[in-house]
Amino acid sequence: SQQGEEDPQALSIQEGENATMNCSYKTSINNLQWYRQNSGRGLVHLILIRSNEREKHSGRLRVTLDTSKKSSSLLITASRAADTASYFCATAGGTSYGKLTFGQGTILTVHP
Amino acid sequence: DGGITQSPKYLFRKEGQNVTLSCEQNLNHDAMYWYRQDPGQGLRLIYYSQIVNDFQKGDIAEGYSVSREKKESFPLTVTSAQKNPTAFYLCASTTSRNPSTDTQYFGPGTRLTVL
């Protein structure tokens, strides 16, 4: 079964609004990563947060991690139509040598 | 899509046929992975390889086979034993040197359809 559960499954917003996606997981992790997938394409890595970090920023992206609740959130600020894509969280645990377990993703649609 | 190529982009298979999906990387990465993605779903791990001439089963290996004879190449064969092979297949690679910070680089994918 999937380690990560993402919420919401789909999100529709207007350009300029913020988008927040949540991810929950079940077991201990080394890090949690967020990836983006445009329709019919491969995944692109967005940001990684280690298990000992609580918050990380990259451009318009902000990721938080709460290991006590086993959850993470991805915030995209001032969204653009080009942000329309599916977003996946993925967890790396133990000595998995980079092996990741993916959630089912959130489909984000940003309307111009 | 970085330095990972997958071919073909689209593949059609008749029932009972084996087909092989190609994955090549020029990133000098040690580890390579094969995932399957069904519509509206996340990625499920089929096989992975941390080093040449070694590979391990992932969560859904039944009906698939792989080889890792060269560092750059990790082909996936979808055999006739895979009962529902229609899906989008993604290959990825990583340096595999630091489990705390490694991120995966993905190819563009192969869409396999069984006729």
Question: What can you tell me about this protein's structure?
Answer:
The complex is a heterodimer of chains A (112) and B (115). Chain A is mostly beta strands and 112 residues long. In chain A, 0% of the residues lie in helices and 54% in strands. In chain A, strands 2, 4, 5, 9, 10 and 11 form a six-stranded mixed beta sheet that branches. Chain A has a five-stranded antiparallel beta sheet with strand order 1-3-8-7-6, with no helix packed on it. In chain A, strand 4 and strand 5 form a beta hairpin. The model of chain A has no long low-confidence stretch (mean pLDDT 92). With 115 residues, chain B is mainly beta. In chain B, 0% of the residues lie in helices and 49% in strands. Chain B has no helices and eleven strands. The mean pLDDT of chain B is 92.
Short descriptors:
heterodimer, A: 112 residues, mainly beta, six-stranded mixed β-sheet, five-stranded antiparallel β-sheet, 11 strands, B: 115 residues, seven-stranded mixed β-sheet, four-stranded antiparallel β-sheet
Give the gist of this structure.
By secondary structure, chain A is mostly beta strands.
Topology of this protein?
The complex is a heterodimer of chains A (112) and B (115).
Chain A: E1 5-7, E2 10-14, E3 19-24, E4 31-37, E5 43-50, E6 55-58, E7 61-66, E8 71-76, E9 85-92, E10 101-102, E11 106-111
Parallel strand pairs in A: 2-11
Antiparallel strand pairs in A: 1-3, 3-8, 4-5, 4-9, 6-7, 7-8, 9-10, 9-11
Chain B: E1 4-7, E2 10-13, E3 19-25, E4 31-37, E5 43-51, E6 54-57, E7 64-66, E8 76-78, E9 87-94, E10 105-106, E11 110-114
Parallel strand pairs in B: 2-11
Antiparallel strand pairs in B: 1-3, 3-8, 4-5, 4-9, 5-6, 7-8, 9-10, 9-11
